[in-house]
Amino acid sequence: MRPQTSSEFQPLETRTLPGVSEAARATFLGRVYGHLLGALVAFTLIEIALFKTGAAAKIFDVMMGFPWLIWLGAFMLVGFLATRFAHNAATPAKQYFGLGIFIVAEALIFVPLLYIANMHAEGVIANAAIVTLVGFSGLTAIVFVTRKDFSFLRSVLAWGTLAALGFIVIGSFAGWSGGTLFPVLMIALAGGWILHDTSRILLHYPEDRYVGAALELFASVALMFYYVLMLFLSRD
To answer: How far, CA to CA in Å, does 3 sit from each of 32, 81, 122, 160?
Structure first.
């Protein structure tokens, strides 16, 4: 789940930003994607550490004591809270704090799915990562080539996210799993958020919010990877 777009994020073409230049914008984008890469590396290293030390098995045992859908809801809720915090943080230190908390929380929530994949489906994690990278790269290229503003998707994506949370809450009590259809729909939702987030970062974000922008992209990439991996596991 993601926060609503703030009115402060207006297209660069329609608002005046003192000192903004093409070079400054390029520097901003470089910082955004540099921080996104750093977040992905940090997430990967945390997961490796959890599995190498045996902590992943203990976390798996604890988390599997609760219905699976509860952790799906927690996954989306953490994304909402961390992204909102980073957007409201006035200083880079607070934005870094939000990003760090989100990376750790995501690493923990991912453990059960990665544990099952690692135990029962050799190679599926790498395949899911490759598919996610290709999907993210393709959607990013669409935005950068067309320079289209996809902020019009916000309402549809927000309602789609609320509907998904509703399904998760009801399903946790009714015993519904959603089969393979639910991950497919969630992958489509994640793709929509990537288009929305990338265009907002390209056209709307002020230059001092590169950490929050990276967190927003990381949340969307994590969402896509989670459900691509879930889809692969459901098929296997």
So the answer is: 19, 8, 36, 13
pTM over 0.85: no
DSSP letters, 41-60, are HHHHHHHHHHHHHTHHHHHH
In a domain? residue 218: yes
Kindly state whether residue 7 falls inside one of the protein's structural domains.
Answer: no
Mean pLDDT by 10 residues, the chain (236 residues): 41 42 85 96 96 91 74 70 68 83 88 88 90 96 93 86 74 63 87 92 85 90 92 79
H/E segment holding residue 94: helix 92-120
Alpha-carbon span 38 to 40, nearest angstrom: 5
In the chain, the amino acid numbered 222 is A
| 3-state SS assignment for residue 102 | helix
Q: How many residues does the chain have?
A: 236
Phi–psi pair at 223, nearest 5 degrees: -60, -45
> First CA to last CA across the chain, in angstroms?
28
Q: Is 54 within the bounds of a domain?
A: yes
In the chain, the number of structural domains is 1
146: tokens are 């067309």
Which domain range does residue 108 map to? 21-235
What CA–CA distance (Å, rounded) separates 95 from 87?
Answer: 8
